[in-house]
Amino acid sequence: MAISISVVLLLVVLVVIFIRNKALKIPHALVCILLGFYLASTDLAPTIHDGISATAEMISGLNP
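User: That's the sequence. What structure does it adopt?
Assistant: Structure tokens below.
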């Protein structure tokens, strides 16, 4: 678990750097995909899923 958390933190830092530099290219997108897979295997996965579900429900409840 300690190794995967370290990898997740490293990937988060890399994704933030790529986004801030506005240089998100194909290799950078692959890093983002790896981050997603690592996040899915951590204890944060249910929390992230619940947050995304709640956000989707809130948006679908808005009237244009």
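The longest helix spans residues 2-20.
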